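FIELD: query
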Amino acid sequence: MFKPVAQVPRYRLVAQQIADRILEGALKAGQKMPAERVLVESLGVSRATIREALIALEITGYVENRFGAGVQVAARPPRDNQLLELAGPGPFELLEARIMIEGEVAALAAENIGPEEIARLKMLIDAMQNESGSAFWGENADEEFHLTIARATGNLALVNAVAEFWCQRLQMPMWVKIHSRVNVDAMKPQLIQEHVEIVSALELGNGPKAREAMRRHIALFGAQILDGWQALAPEDRQEVSPPPERLRRRVETEIGEWDFPS
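FIELD: result
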C-alpha cells in the first residue's frame, strides 16, 4: 500500500535550491556565488552542509571553484536537472558491494591472469609507495590496480562494475567527508602489504586465496571508513543513512572482531 519514504540528505536539498536559481537565471553564468556566511543564514543550514552542496554543484557542472576567485556559477551551466545523477548508492552500500563483488572478481582473475598483468600489478604497487594520501582522487595507482585485476577476468561487465565503484565515490560529497577522516599516509604500509598479498595469490593462480585477500583488503579499509563516519559531528552523520548491521557482520567476517562504531 505504501512506498518507503526516501531520505534526502540536506546537502542535496540545498544544492537543488541553488541549482534551481541557476536554471531560472537568478544566478547567472560567471556570477560569483554568495558568501558562505550568506548562504548559511539564508538557507538555515550548517557551513558543512553548504560546502557539501557546493561540491555536488561542482561535480554536476553548475559551479566552478577557481583558484583565487572563489566559487562562481559555471560559464555554461547545465540546462536541466543534473543533480538527479547524484541519487546513486550511499557510501556504505558502495562499500558492501565492493567487498562482495571485487572478491569474486579477484577469484576469477586468478584463473586467467598472465605474466604481463602480474608485472603491471607489481609496478603499480611500486607506484603506490610514492603516492601521497592526497592521490586518493583521479586516476591513481590504486584505482588502476583494481581495474587491471578486473580486466584480467576477460569479462567487460565486471570491468565496468569495478570502474563504476571508483567513479561513484567521486560523486559522493559524504564519501569525501568521511574519507578525509582516514589517515591514508599512516595506513600506507598496511595497504601496500595487502596489495602484495593479493598479487601473490593471483600469481599462484589461487582463486580462493585471491578472493580472501581482496575481501580482507576492502574490509580493512572499510573499517577505517566506518570509524571515519563515527568521528563526524552528529549533525553531519544525519546526512547519510547509518551503516547497516549486516555490514558490521560482513566486515567482522573478513577481518575478525572489531570495535564497530555505533
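FIELD: remark
The longest helix spans residues 207-231.
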